[in-house]
Design brief:
heterodimer; A: about 90 residues; mainly beta; Folate-binding fold; four-stranded antiparallel sheet; two-stranded antiparallel sheet; 1 helix; B: about 190 residues; alpha+beta; Gyrase A, domain 2; Alpha-Beta Plaits; 2 domains; five-stranded antiparallel sheet; 10 strands; globular; binds zinc ion; SoxG (chain B); TrmE/GcvT-like (chain B); Sarcosine oxidase subunit gamma (chain B)
Chain lengths: ~90, ~190
Amino acid sequence: MLLIPCPWCGPRDEAEFHYGGQAHVAYPADPGALSDEEWARYLFFRDNPKGSFAERWSHSAGCRRWFNAVRDTATNEIHAVYRVGEPRPVTP
Amino acid sequence: MAERRSPAAAFADRFATASKSGALTLAEIPFLRQINVRVDPESPAAADLGAALGVALPVSPGTAVRSGEVTVAWQGPDEWLVIGPEGYEAEPLRAALGDRHGSVVDVSAQRTTLLVGGPRAREVLAHGCAIDLHPSVFGPGAVAQTMLARAQVVLLPQQDGFLVLVRSSFAVYLAEWLLDAATEYVT
Ligand SMILES: [Zn+2]
């Protein structure tokens, strides 16, 4: 079980959270102008690094707020959590 | 007109029996007024709501403040739960917000309230709750939205024990779980 530090509530069990995939994937400025391939790339293509990964989490059984976390996908170490709208902090 | 029944009404006798040992108090506190308030905490509307409540909306995560019989519990950076006696009315809060951006919604039917009190209250809850319930970090003035036995709850520590606000549809499950968790302390 991961202990995930919600930026509002503090450390809580992983079971209180929902995972939201990669963070900082911007909605296309003009979706109608995209080709099918470009739209599919926006919808389905995500990074899959071994190491630090910025991702979205929702504290669904607590304060129900979305936030971002930088997690090491190999060790599960969480290097940083930060609120939606804040830039990704510099982490190892 | 249909008779109103609280979600854990059927447990009154078993709660009373479990409370006889003195180690634990279990009871339902039915029909408390619960009002969900959402507003930008920096806005003039938030200040007006605070004035109507008699206490400023608490902005520190995990804190709850009291104003007379009413508790105002932090639920999120722009969300609070106001808990009062059955007769407490939402209308003055609605009037304080006016037509400004925000919401005041009576959610009393969403959850019922269980009291888990007595010397063993903390141990019983700890059977199914991962957060630290020790009074040094979670005493009166705190609030937590978390999971108890995998059911979503709002925990409000009191001078003696805890109020456990649980969704009406989960109340029977949680009441059964509490009685089971309490077995070793009450028999
Ligand atoms: Zn939270």
